């Protein structure tokens, strides 16, 4: 059963779906609970590019619990199935909770290092997991996640799924489903 969308989110998705511009979709710090939501967003909006800026299975805190590697591997296998199932061009930046070796196993040449700058239709995107990876890079857009920090020309993928339309450079944010921050462990770790 598809997620029921609030009116505002539905209007943004309708606008994105009807746009003829090139669409860049950006996600970050994704717990397994949002994988289906991400797949549905891809189906509805038909992006040309999907950029994930790390912590691919953010409900599994691999940095703190390395013994969870088998669970993590299963989770990113599911995410790879979702992301690769639509034929979009992918860029994946490993985060602090990721195992770069496993990320490369599932995403191959789509994996880029934090601090990489890519160009899409003449627009530069700096890609990193944290704001520190991108803050000093020369780019039109700085894509990152990891925490709630905001920076100049930055799009934080923790706050929502970001879309950039090209060539207009219009940006839109679609909120993650309710409970996403809890699934990330933010309420427990941050005492919210």
TrEMBL record:
Domain of life: Archaea
GO molecular function (one): hydrolase activity
Domain Calcineurin-like phosphoesterase: 23-106
Pfam families from the UniProt entry: Metallophos
InterPro entries named in the record: Calcineurin-like_PHP (IPR004843), Metallo-depent_PP-like (IPR029052)
Protein name: Metallophosphoesterase
Organism: Thermococcus barossii
Species classification: Archaea, Methanobacteriati, Methanobacteriota, Thermococci, Thermococcales
